[in-house]
Structure formats: structure tokens, C-alpha cells
Amino acid sequence: MKLFVLGITGRRGAGKDTAAEYFSKKYGFRVLTFTDDVLAPMLRSMGKKVTRENLIDLGMDMRETFDSKAVLAAALCERIGWRGLWAISGVRFPEEVRYFRSNFGNNFRLISVECSAKKRYDRLRRRGTKGEGRMSYQEFMKIEKRPTEKPIDKTMKMAKFRLDNNKTRNDLYRQIERIYEKFKLE
User: Which CATH number goes with the domain that contains 135?
Assistant: First the structure.
């Protein structure tokens, strides 16, 4: 099987992981995330809790230490190799998109998952992971202005494909199926 890498971008709670999971279950993509496959294992090895704040701080520290906004993308690329179907959930920085494109060329596509702030906030509260179960809407909006969140809008504009996740999961799944057909993978 040839290589195909799908980057999934979008704001917190937009449905990136839901889309990645559907690509995995329906089409056999292997899913990687910056949190689960790079940052969280590092935090645990340092004896720290996996919270939104700790993830943000570690990601920013790594980007500064290595003087590269694509350092986390490089770590994921090492895991991918040159075969198979891969979905990378949580692409944040334009530099990460450029890094993936330079490594995988035409075998890389970027999808943007879009959703209103209110729906995203409600999802994050319900999900309650990364210490967000008790977060107020004001705290949610404050995080939206963090240095790790600001570049996402630019990154989303780099996507050729868009998913509107303001309706039902089934609606999202139908959109994914239409986009998958455009990839023409064989």
C-alpha cells in the first residue's frame, strides 16, 4: 500500500479526533495526535499531569528549545515512515503543514473541521478531559487567545477540504465520505 497522510486541523472541541476516529474505523487510517503520541508521554515521563496547561507549556517549550514550530510534526513523521494510511489530528501551525507537505508531497492532504465556539465549549465541558470539565466560558475564550491557539485560523485556511461540524455526527460522517471519495485512494 502506498503512503497517504491526512492532517486534520481545527479549533479545540471542533471534532478533529471524531473525524480521525471515523477515518480509522471506516477506512483503516492509523491515527496519531500531537497530545497522545508526543506530548502526553513526555509529561508522564517527567512526572507531570496531562492537563491542557501542561500540554500547552510543554509544546511551547519544545518549539522554543528547538527553535522550530514544526518540531512536533518532525516527531510524528518519524513514526509514519513511507507506507500506509495515516491521520494526524491536531495540526496547529502553518509551519507544521509546510513540514508535512515537504516530507510527503502529494501524499499529504489537510482537512479543516469547523464548528461554532458555543458548541465547542459545550463539547469540551461534557468530555471533561485535560482538566476542562469545570471550565467557564470565559476561561475557554481566554485559552482561545493563547499562542498555541492563534495560528489555527491561518492553518485552517491552508486546508483544501472543510468539514462543518455544527450538526449531527451522521452529518459529519457523510461529509467525510464525500471528501474521502475525492482522495481517489487505491
Answer: 3.40.50.300
